[in-house]
Amino acid sequence: MDQTVQSVQSPPGVQAEGKLLFHLENCRQSYHKDASADVIVLDDVDLSLREGEIVGLLGRSGSGKSTLLRIVAGLLKPTSGDVRWRGEPLTGPAEGVAMVFQSFALFPWLTVEENVALGLEAQGVSRSERETRAEEAIDLIGLGGYENAYPKEMSGGMRQRVGLARALVVHPDLLLMDEPFSALDVLTAETLRTDLIDLWSEGRLPVKAIMMVTHNIEEAVLMCDRILVFSSNPGRVASELKVPFAHPRNRLAPDFRQLVDDIYALMTRRPVEPPKPQAADKGLVPAPQPFQALPVVSTNLMAGLMETIAGEPYMGRADLPALANAFQMEADELLPIGEALQLLRFAEFEEGDITLTEGGKRFVEAETDERKEQFSEAVLAHVPMIAQIRQVLEERWNHRAPALRFRDELEDHMSPDYADSTIRTVISWGRYGELFSYDREADQFSLEDEGEDED
Q1: How many domains does the chain have?
Q2: Alpha-helix runs per DSSP H in 213-311
Q3: Residue 234: is the preceding peptide bond cis (ω within 30°)?
Q4: Cα 3 to Cα 5: distance, rounded to the nearest angstrom
Q5: What does the alpha-carbon distance between residue 24 and residue 47 come to, in Å, rounded to a whole number?
Q6: Contact 263/242 with Cβ under 8 angstroms?
Q7: Closest CA to 361 of 307, 442, 322
Q8: Is the separation of the CB atoms in 142 and 161 below 8 Å?
Q9: Is residue 223 part of a domain?
Q10: CATH label of the domain that carries residue 181
Q11: DSSP 3-state assignment of 372?
């Protein structure tokens, strides 16, 4: 682990730990790239899961949480590490594991009952037993009477309930959930969370443990007994926390709010790196890495957040949980904007708060042209890739350069997805700062306005 593990002791009266279901040690997942170093998605991950607990994997997009879920399910073999299911090495799909996905993944030509019974049919269960168990699962998740309905006739929340019933009908030992509520509206997601926890607390769910991936900090604290907070690029377990509250949980309780605040603080804390001697002597901040992955954040979002923080009631400093609640934003939506502002020295994160710097305050007060000039100076100073592109364009006789060149450089140091999203951010920020143009059809940068793609 790359940070000290933090935990909260369980309160008196909590039952002893259940039997060990799953254990993973020193897990690494990497992908080989020709003529370059391997791209590491997960590194040095340890994880255990016992009967009777709900474990949440919390972290930013790209931190390897969904990859880890596939490893737990036996659908993906890690590059290295020891993986055991019920004490035995896991060499393929784990027996007794079911998964619920973010997308509903239902067959539109099948009825609710037929969708739910699919897993039983694959197991060779008789028709009469399939019908009985499917009906029980459908009733359990609150869709009694909809057995003969088709997915197109149902709302998103109802379709996700069908996906949940399909997973539960096989009576799995472990239920894996990959962002199961993120595609639902706020009210529907809250209802389904509450129903699921009620069933779990009452012992009515035919499962022994649950592991879920989420970006929603409050969701993790509301549902989970233990939370693993992942850092990114590569994915590692940065912190592990036990949630000491009994169900049902009151999200307005001071100790609940405090734990949410603590997790925001963990996720916004930058790793402490000793400055280089020459930089330390001069009191300078160490230079950023030349091939850093950039968050996909528009300048409009950055400007909007700065204007919000600068105004009432925040007046330059905002509590991230309160900000997320006010704008109905999950951590994975809010944190990238704050990290972009921090990168450009427009704001700072500190223990779950975001505070505008003097530069951020000047940006808010400036007119459009002044904002662009200030933004241009910031990205040239703090985003090496943009500074490199600008320099190459200035040095070339035709002031043009293919974007593929820079994309390939990035892919030598990060995954293709990260490289692609970083290039998109580079294009957006560079154009806003009027540092270069980008022609999407030709896929090239230039110092000219001709052929600029405004999409």
Answers
A1: 1
A2: 217-223, 254-268, 277-282, 299-310
A3: yes
A4: 6
A5: 5
A6: no
A7: 307
A8: yes
A9: yes
A10: 3.40.50.300
A11: helix
Q: Answer yes or no: are the C-beta atoms of 98 and 84 closer than 8 Å.
A: no
Q: Are 308 and 314 in contact (CB under 8 A)?
A: yes
Element housing 157 (H / E): helix 156-168
Q: Rounded to an integer, what is the distance from CA 392 to the centroid of its chain? A: 34
Strands 20-31, 97-100: pairing is unpaired
Residue pair 299/432 in contact by the 8 Å Cβ criterion? yes
Q: For 137-142, which contacts have Cβ atoms below 8 Å and span 24 or more sequence positions?
A: 137/165, 137/166, 137/168, 137/169, 138/112, 138/113, 138/162, 138/165, 140/165, 140/168, 140/199, 140/204, 140/205, 141/165, 141/168, 141/195, 141/199, 142/195
Quick check: is 152 in a domain? yes
* Residue partners of 241: CB distance under 8 A and separation at least 6: 6, 7, 8, 226, 227, 229, 259, 262, 263
What's the Cα-to-Cα distance from 240 to each of 65, 166, 226, 243, 271, rounded to whole Å?
14, 31, 7, 10, 16
Q: Is 320 among the domain residues?
A: no
Q: 3-state class of 424 per DSSP? A: helix
Please give the chain's pLDDT, 455 residues, in tens.
333 333 333 333 334 467 899 999 999 888 766 555 667 788 889 999 999 999 999 887 667 888 888 899 888 888 888 989 988 888 888 888 988 877 767 888 989 898 888 888 878 888 888 888 888 888 888 888 888 999 888 888 888 888 888 888 888 899 999 888 877 777 888 888 888 899 899 888 889 999 999 888 889 999 999 999 988 778 888 889 999 999 889 988 999 989 988 888 888 766 544 444 443 343 433 444 556 778 888 999 999 999 999 998 899 999 888 888 777 777 777 888 888 998 899 999 877 789 999 999 999 999 999 999 999 999 999 999 899 999 999 999 899 999 988 888 887 777 677 788 889 999 999 999 999 999 999 999 998 654 444 44
Structure tokens at 410: 């990035």
Range of the domain at 182: 20-268
Please report the sign of the dihedral spanned by the C-alpha atoms of residue 252, residue 258, residue 263, residue 269.
Answer: positive
Both tokens assigned to 8:
């909260």
Give 365's contacts (C-beta < 8 A, 6+ positions apart). Answer: none
Separation CA 60–CA 67 (nearest Å): 13
Q: Is 244 a member of any domain? A: yes
CA gap 341, 353 in Å, rounded: 13
Distance CA 319, CA 295 (A): 21
Q: Rounded to whole angstroms, how far apart are CA atoms 20 and 154?
A: 38
Distances (CA, A) of 196 to 145, 252, 296, 417, 427: 19, 20, 33, 33, 43
